[in-house]
Design goal:
534 residues, mainly beta, six-stranded antiparallel barrel
Length: 534
């Protein structure tokens, strides 16, 4: 059977190893096949475990690595069991440095291990986030026999005990089993000692996607191995079938790294994917008090404790124009599946952005002029709260509901096509509606059109079912007056856990900086609350 590489000799220094068999060498003339990674696959990490072992790993979130449990097992020849918590031996990870003889990247301590238990995999938390390195995406699609995958690592090569360079090579997927997958060498590459724990990944249009972790190898052609051994196949640990677990573990510390007292506005939508891609849930767009902005990418799993998997900073330096926003809501205005924003600015200008993604906002259209010398007044200066939902019956989230300063409400239907010509008055001015603190659209009652959720200043919260152009059709109370919801800073609704994209989850940032989550809110109320931060 293949050799479990950490079983190999212990030395007074490191157990060193390399990625390709007799392939990845410093001299192209001597190399059989394979390549050194020149600033590619920087998500690959090198682990120094107590000065006694060396392994590879992959960054899957700024603060989390995935690697092999056998790297940390006391005697991997007998058991792969690894206790949860701090590693037994002091461990450091070098990340984002494909040439170890050069600077750059990060060198960070590993402070916590989270073992899987049923296979040769462990998650490793870093003492601080590794900045400047794009984490490796997690693959959810099943491995297919015959498909090509790549492997990377800092292990021994064909003629180097301690290589300075990251190496990578191609393998073909063989037999796929419950927790492991056989991989067959292509072009003569092999996995050597020190590549244990390194990633196996697909390349899809230049995008790498994690599918496995290097576990065991025959090591044919690796320096120091039996010269009679020519086999270069390997056995990887499958992770495509535990992708949800990886996301849940690696997302545990994501939200707590931010100060939620500094949030100014939140809006939910499909910004990093489309609504048609039902594997991933809604993202969260956040504008912070200093004018910067972030997108928290929605999870691919349904764990309500980890609804987001990554934070991306949207191009917007401190002091950017976002500090002048006074109301923000997200919707599917352009009808393309990915969402954009409706923004009312401080000067009363109203803007539609057809799309928002990691590069920023796109397809800007001014719907109403701001107040200036040519436009000395604007009734949009009186728009106090806005939300976007599917209120016109076509199922598309492109209708803007406005609560005005005088307590009246109106609807602007299909703003992408009609701009601001689809005005419908929903209710006349009502003194009591001046006590509304926040409004948000959702799908809580199963009606054909969106519901309206209102949080009142005293903490009472109401749902108005199936709002449409004819107005309101009843009112349901889901939180009593003087409930803790009176301490909410921001509130947004989204589809963060549902496989059917139903918008009935409520996310609240509290005045004390905590972050609360209420999944599956319905006409009966809020059934459970989860503190995501705090």
């Amino acid at each position: 059977m293949p050799v479990r590489r950490p079983r190999a000799a212990w030395t007074a220094g490191l157990i060193i190893s390399g990625l390709a068999a007799s392939v990845f060498t410093g001299s192209p003339a001597q190399a059989v096949v394979g390549q050194t990674a020149n600033d590619s696959f920087t998500f690959t990490a090198k682990l120094d475990i107590g000065g006694q072992r060396s392994c590879s790993a992959a960054l899957v979130e700024k603060e989390w690595l995935i690697t092999a449990a056998s790297c940390f097992a006391e005697n991997p020849a007998q058991s792969l069991k690894v206790p949860a918590g701090a590693p037994r031996l002091s461990t450091t990870a070098t990340i984002g440095r494909t040439d170890l003889s050069r600077g750059g990247g990060s060198v960070v301590d590993v402070v916590e291990l989270v073992p899987r238990g049923d296979r040769d995999v462990v998650m490793a938390r870093l003492a601080k986030p590794a900045e400047g390195v794009a984490p490796l995406a997690i693959g959810f699609n099943p491995l297919l026999q015959g498909e090509d995958v790549w492997a990377s690592g800092y292990g021994r090569t064909g003629d180097e005990w301690v290589p300075d360079r990251l190496h990578y090579g191609k393998f073909a997927v063989g037999a796929v089993k419950n927790t492991s997958v056989g991989v067959t060498s292509k072009d003569g590459v092999a996995l050597c000692q020190g590549d244990t724990g390194g990633p196996a990944f697909r390349l899809l249009g230049g995008r790498a996607e994690l599918v496995g972790v290097n576990s065991q190898s025959w090591q044919g052609g690796c320096l120091g191995s039996d010269s009679a051994e020519t086999r270069k196949d390997a056995l990887d640990t499958r992770v495509d079938d535990i992708a949800g677990w990886i996301q849940s573990v690696s997302s545990r510390t994501l939200l707590s790294r931010r100060d939620w007292k500094e949030v100014a506005y939140t809006a939910s939508g499909y910004f990093t994917t489309s609504e048609a891609d039902r594997k991933r849930h809604m993202d969260l767009f956040v504008v912070w008090n200093d004018g910067t902005a972030s997108i928290f990418q929605g999870s691919d799993n349904a764990d309500p404790k980890t609804p987001f998997t990554a934070e991306y900073k949207v191009p917007a330096p401190p002091g950017s124009s976002w500090q002048y926003a006074r109301a923000i809501a997200a919707g599917n205005f352009a009808g393309s599946g990915s969402d954009g924003l409706f923004v009312r600015w401080k000067d009363a200008e109203v803007t539609e952005y057809g799309h928002l993604d990691l590069k920023g906002v796109h397809d800007e259209r001014m719907l109403a002029h701001g107040i200036d010398k040519d436009h000395p007044t604007s009734f949009w200066a009186n728009a106090r709260l806005v939300t976007v939902g599917a209120y016109s019956g076509d199922g598309r989230r492109d209708d803007v509901l406005i609560l005005w300063e005088n307590g009246s409400t109106s609807l602007q239907a299909d703003i992408h096509t009609k701009k601001l010509d689809g005005h419908v008055q929903l209710s006349e001015a009502q003194k009591s509606w001046e006590n509304a603190a926040e409004i948000s659209a959702g799908e809580f009652t199963g009606k054909k059109t969106s519901d309206l959720l209102i949080r009142w200043k005293d903490g009472e919260t109401s749902i108005f079912p199936g709002v449409d152009a004819k107005g309101y059709h009843g009112r349901l109370k889901i939180r009593d007056a003087e409930s803790p919801w009176k301490n909410a800073r921001t509130l947004t609704t989204g589809s963060y856990t549902n496989s059917d994209n139903r918008v009935n989850d409520v996310l609240i940032s509290w005045n004390n900086g905590n972050l609360g989550f209420y999944p599956d809110v319905d006409a009966e109320g809020t059934h459970t609350g989860i503190e995501l931060v705090g």
